[in-house]
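Notes from hallway chat w/ T.B., transcribed later so I don't forget. T.B. wanted the structure written out for a chain they're using in a teaching module, and asked if we could keep both sequence and structure tokens in one place. Agreed to drop them here.
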Amino acid sequence: MQENRNSSCGLSFDGRGSVCIDTKRVLDCCRDRDCFEDTRVYLSEEGEAIINNATGVRLKCAKLVWAYVGVDPIVFNRGFYRVTVRYYVKVEGEGCVCIGRSQCFEGIAVLEKEVVLYGGEGSLVSFSSTAEDNFCNVCNQDNMTVDAPTAVVETVEPIILGHKISDCSCPCSCNECGCEIPEVVCGCLNGELVTSSEGARLYVSFGIFSVIRIIRPAQLLVQATDYSVPDKECTPATSDENPCALFRTMAFPVNQFRTPGAPIRENGGGKGGGCGCGK
């Protein structure tokens, strides 16, 4: 059995050599800055009552609570996939209901975008061993994966660019109704979400920076070294030590006081510590 081992993979006796790893390979990626203008924000019952009676509305923050990412192949362009990203943003604001008094409200906005990225071609179906995959459980499908790419979306918190209140008595259109908002997202609000209101409506413009990439499983041969034991000893986290003595052991954060973009002067062996006072 020893001669059947692949001699090109595996560490040598000195802890160095080539190692085969199973990882994810990025096939295509893109970055984008999206501006979603006048997006409907669906409020809770309490929020509906606040904006209908408020003399002024101010938005405090927007937080991304969940996102749906879907990957669909493009039929007439093999190897390319349509990536659909649907953001669910929680909006917090406050309305002035009377002089010197404000009430807070919450709502959910749905933002959607699509991009086309190259994801390669593949027709493999892979199986992996799991604790449930045994002889008596032959119908288990949890260990089976289809050779399809995976889309990954990285983003920062949305930026509120502006908002407006619109008085409309017409029912919402099909693409505006919030009937597709998952229950897990609705549970983030303090109250039941209202999607069929005919009163005042809140519209917000958002800005989102994002990076989207498509990845596939890959096996790579890399150079590696054996794990080494660190030389640094662990410092016990005790509260008995004098806080001032602990503070004196911290390095002074010089870089935090340096002007951004200012050139760093080098001390050419002169006096003055490189501050320009070498004489």
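Follow-up for T.B.: The first strand starts at residue 10 and ends at 11. Might be a good example for the class.
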